[in-house]
Amino acid sequence: MVSFKESISAEELDKLELASFPGKIFVVDTVGAEFNRAVNYLRSQKIIGFDTETRPCFSPDQPRYGVALLQLSGPERAYLFRIKSLGMHRRLRNLLANDKIIKVGAAVNDDIRGLQRYAEFTPNAFVDLQKIVPDFGIRDKSVKKMTAIILGFKISKSQQLSNWEADTLSEAQTKYAATDAWVCREMYLRLMQSKEQ
C-alpha cells in the first residue's frame, strides 16, 4: 500500500501546481433534454463525485439559505444542477438512492441533509472522504489539503463564498463547483489504487 503524508503545510501547498476540472461543465436549471442527458450520463458511471453549494450567510440575522447547487461529476463531464429552480427532481433522488453508483464527497451528511429539505430520499452508496482518509494515515480533512496530499496539486477555493443563487453563475463559479465534485472522485480512485500497490 502506498503511504500518504499525514499532513501538509501552507508553504508546501503554495508550491503545488493549481489544477481544475479538465472536462466539460454543464449547468442544468430546467427539466428537459439537457437534464435527461445529465441523468443518463451519471447513471452510466460506477463512481461519481458529489458536492453541494449554498449561498453564504454573512450575518446572524440573515435567513439560512437552502442548497443552491448540486454538483455531480464523472471523469469527463460535470453537471451542476441548480436546485433552487429545479427542486429535488425524482430522477435526481433516484440517482442519489441508487446503491450501484458510488457517490464520493467530503462531509456528505450535511450536503445530504440540505438536499433532503427539498424532498425526502434515502441516500445509498455514499463515501465520505473525511471518514476514510484516517485509514490511509491522513490527518488533514479539508478538501484543499486532502487534494494536495492525495493528488499532488492544489485547487482554488476563491469562489467558496460567492453567491450561488446569482441569476447566472460566472465561469469561475462553475469551474470551482465542478472541480470540487471531480476531485472527490479522483481522490477516491487514487486511494483505492493505493491499496492495490
Mean pLDDT: 93
Topology as a string of helices (H) and strands (E): HEHEEEHHEHEHHH
User: Number of DSSP strands?
Assistant: 6
Most strands sheet: 6 strands, mixed
Low-pLDDT residue intervals, each spanning 5 or more residues: none
The percent range for strand residues is 15-25%
What is the global morphology? globular
> What is the rounded Rg?
16 Å
Alpha-carbon distance between the two ends: 5 Å
Helical segment count = 8
Q: Helicity, in percent? A: 25-40%
Structure class: alpha/beta
Trace the largest sheet across and list its strands. 1-4-3-2-5-6
GO biological process, one term: nucleobase-containing compound metabolic process
Keywords: Exonuclease, Hydrolase, Magnesium, Metal-binding, Nuclease
Domain 3'-5' exonuclease: 25-196
InterPro entries: 3'-5'_exonuclease_dom, 3-5_Exonuclease_domain, RNaseH-like_sf, RNaseH_sf
What structural keywords apply?
globular, single chain, 6-stranded mixed beta sheet, 197 residues, alpha/beta
Overview of this protein structure:
The protein has a 6-stranded mixed sheet, sandwiched between helices. The protein is α/β, with parallel strands linked by helices and 197 residues long. Strand 3 and strand 4 form a beta hairpin. The protein is built from 8 helices and 6 strands, in the order αβαβββααβαβααα. The model has no long low-confidence stretch (mean pLDDT 93). InterPro entries: 3'-5'_exonuclease_dom, 3-5_Exonuclease_domain, RNaseH-like_sf, RNaseH_sf. This is 3'-5' exonuclease. Keywords: Exonuclease, Hydrolase, Magnesium, Metal-binding, Nuclease.
